[in-house]
Amino acid sequence: MFFDASIFLWLLLPVAAVSGWFAAKLDQRRRDKHDLPTAYFKGLNFLLNEQPDKAIEVFVQVLEVNSDTVETHLAVGNLFRRRGEVDRAIRVHQNLIARPMLDKNQRAQALLELGQDYLKAGLFDRAENLFSELVEMRLHQEPALRFLMQIYQQEREWQKAIATGRKLARVSGKNLNDTIAQFNCELADGARLAGDIASAREYAKSALSADSGCVRASLLLGDIDAAQGRHQEAIKAWQRIEQQDPQFIDEAAPRLAASFRALGADAAFRELFERFLERHGGAAVMLALAEIVQQREGAAAAEQFIAKWLRKRPSVQGLHRLIELNLARSEDGARSDLETLKTIIEQLRQRQSLYGCQQCGLKSHALYWQCPGCNRWNSIKPLGDKLAA
Q1: What is the DSSP string of 224-272?
Q2: In 122-176, which ranges are continuous DSSP H helix?
Q3: Does residue 204 contact residue 227 with C-beta atoms inside 8 Å?
């Protein structure tokens, strides 16, 4: 039977603590070596026979909670939690907290550990109560506030998450404005889905107040204005993205194109998008311009425009559109080959990862404002539409 060396090292910790405790007892009371509890030898026997679960259980039972063994109890409980044995971790830490001999700091440490046990077990209400108690005690405030913010995010209690995030920023001295802005955006999305447009607008503005670089808030404000026919205001909101993060211009490009068309402002549309294309070169910007070229100058001119751009910046979306234009004008002999090529490109588009997390490296086809892999906010960015993707 294979026995993990790291587990063995962890198990030596309670063994050492138990040994030290009994040695002290022997020295104080001058006991004979035969007075050691049989449970102690039983635990060692389990350990030597590679039965760590039974060994730990015995050591937990034999340990008397005093100032010398508090750390050992915490270590054993943490070991259980890391191994996924949350029920045992809870039992160890609850047993520790129940002892009246703990001083204030020891009790606070035990509360923090028990709160993490509850959190891992999905007992959010119990975990929230313990972490809130620590915040009130002004002990272990920073980790307690971080765990509280984690709970409120999982339960989608965004107002509480915002208040906790602000308090955490004060305690830790770290800037959490970008995360707080995302919480406001979550509120804006929720209000918008509920039909409360006024609240959605205010939440999106609050997001920008917290973080002026919040792309999501600009997209939201533009969407809200466009849905109400306020296209000039929508265009202003979306144009702001160029200063916030030009990597996201392609997200705004189709929206901008629709609002410019609604205003009948083709000249302003083309001027802006040509500037975008020159500075940033996004595929969505290029395709929007190609559509204007097609409307004004015909399909052949649009094909030439796309082909010229593809020579500089190979793109799956650009190639797909070029094939579509050629199909519309192709003869029967070439149509079959073009249809086959279009199918291949469509399959490539479906497999293409358009976004990636800069923290954990997760790739996705959809844009997430919070990474599903590492749960970081604002870490996912567009990867760009490259033909080699």
Answers
A1: HHHHTT-HHHHHHHHHTHHHH-GGGHHHHHHHHHHHHHHHT-HHHHHHH
A2: 124-137, 141-154, 158-172
A3: no
How far apart CA 312 and CA 94 sit, in angstroms, is 65
C-alpha 162/C-alpha 201 separation (Å) is 17
Q: Which tokens sit at 322?
A: 């070029």
Print burial letters for 97-125: b (CB count within 10 Å at least 16), e (below 16): beeeebeeebbbbbbbbbbbbbbeeeebe
Closest-CA residue to 38 (of 67, 21, 20, 61): 61
CA contacts within 13 A on the Cβ side of 289: 24
One-character DSSP codes across 299-310: HHHHHHHHHHHH
SS3 356: strand
Give the count of alpha carbons within 13 A of 29, CB side only. Answer: 11
| CA 378 – CA 216 distance, rounded (Å) | 9
**Which stretches of 261-358 are assigned E, i.e. beta strand?**
355-357
Q: Judging by DSSP bridges, how do beta strands 380-382 and 363-364 pair with one another?
A: unpaired
Beta bridge partners of 355: 364, 382
Residue by residue, pLDDT tens for the chain (389 residues) are: 444 545 544 555 554 544 554 455 445 443 443 444 565 556 556 555 666 666 666 666 655 555 567 887 788 888 889 989 899 899 889 988 888 888 999 999 999 999 999 999 999 999 999 999 999 999 999 999 999 999 999 999 999 999 999 999 999 999 999 999 999 999 999 999 999 999 999 999 999 999 999 999 999 999 999 999 999 999 999 999 999 999 999 999 999 999 999 999 989 998 998 898 888 878 888 888 888 888 888 888 888 878 888 888 877 777 777 777 666 666 665 666 556 666 666 666 666 668 999 999 999 888 999 999 999 999 999 887 654 44
Residue partners of 133: CB distance under 8 A and separation at least 6: 111
Q: What strands, in cross-sheet order, belong to the sheet with 355-357?
A: 363-364, 355-357, 380-382
